[in-house]
């Protein structure tokens, strides 16, 4: 499922216009993105949690030339699946 399919499903399920459903989905995604930018943890019970992990700088290598390169420190979002979602997917429900 992609974002537009999620919008269509929300609109159909709740009897909303596509435009209103799109606005709701955008608000939710923007709020989640803003929380992760602030380094906050997002937990959705029964679904999973999103956290931002910090990665230190390291020396890597260019795969084409083999030359060493310095990789800067970075922060990346990470998703950890919740127990209920894991069980539902495993049981095919």
UniProtKB/TrEMBL annotation:
GO terms for molecular function: DNA binding; structural constituent of chromatin. One of its GO terms (cellular component) is cytosol. The keyword DNA-binding applies. Transmembrane segments: none annotated. Keywords: DNA-binding. SUPFAM superfamilies: IHF-like DNA-binding proteins. It comes from the Bacteria. PANTHER family: DNA-BINDING PROTEIN HU (PTHR33175), INTEGRATION HOST FACTOR SUBUNIT BETA (PTHR33175:SF5). Belongs to the bacterial histone-like protein family. This is Integration host factor subunit beta. It comes from Geobacter hydrogenophilus.
């Amino acid at each position: 499922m992609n974002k537009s399919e999620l919008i269509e499903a929300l609109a159909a399920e709740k009897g909303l216009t596509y435009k209103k459903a799109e606005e709701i989905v955008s608000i939710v995604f923007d709020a989640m993105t803003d929380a992760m930018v602030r380094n906050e943890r997002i937990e959705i019970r029964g679904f999973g949690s999103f956290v931002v992990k910090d990665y230190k700088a390291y020396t890597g290598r260019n795969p084409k030339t083999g030359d060493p390169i310095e990789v800067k420190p970075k922060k990346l979002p990470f998703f950890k699946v919740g127990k209920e979602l894991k069980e539902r997917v495993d049981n095919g429900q």
